[in-house]
Amino acid sequence: MGVNPITKKRVPTDEDWMRHALSLAHKASEQGEVPVGAVLVKDDQLISEGWNQPILQHDPTAHAEIMAMRHAAKKLENYRLPGTTLYITIEPCSMCAGAIVHARIKRVVFGGSEPRAGAAGSVINLLQNPQFNHQTEVTSGVLSEECGQLLKDFFLLKRQLLKKRK
Fold it and tell me: CB neighbours (10 Å) of residue 164?
């Protein structure tokens, strides 16, 4: 944890929040979902959290980021989420990036890059597109090794299970 220079109180760092998102990604993995976790924070306080649930929810939009934003919007009674930071274990896809822009999230912090579908700089950068009326600050690579390893381990296990079935 860091220290606020004015109040001298301990405040969570990007790494602390990402560790929390990683714990949610593990929860997704335990449920058979792709291990992605998300945490939404405002003023150093947890607002909401989410993990991938499209299989369990029978909902293609039930990505970790969307789940966290849905919970936050209900809690705050506002479809806009200004002044918030969204921590995600993997770079958001285009669907999630679009929702992030529409929600007016101030900042996104993600762990691993997504070279096939990343919409925060890897394939396309929707979060900072100057043609949109809102741009989101982006910080990438926070605990990227841990985030990436979790995904690699998950898909390795999936492939091994598929081989055993054949």
Answer: 7
pTM: 0.93
Per the CB < 8 A criterion, the answer to whether 89 and 140 are in contact is: no
Residues with a catalytic annotation lie at 65
Q: Which backbone phi and psi does 29 adopt, to 5 degrees?
A: -60, -45
d(C-alpha 165, C-alpha 111), whole Å: 33
User: Which strands, in side-by-side order, build the sheet including 84-90?
Assistant: 45-51, 37-42, 84-90, 107-112, 137-140
| Rounded Cα gap, residues 136 and 35, in angstroms | 24
Burial of 53 (0-12, 13-18, 19+ CB in 10 A): buried
pLDDT above 70 (res 4): no
Q: How far apart are the first and last CA of the chain?
A: 48
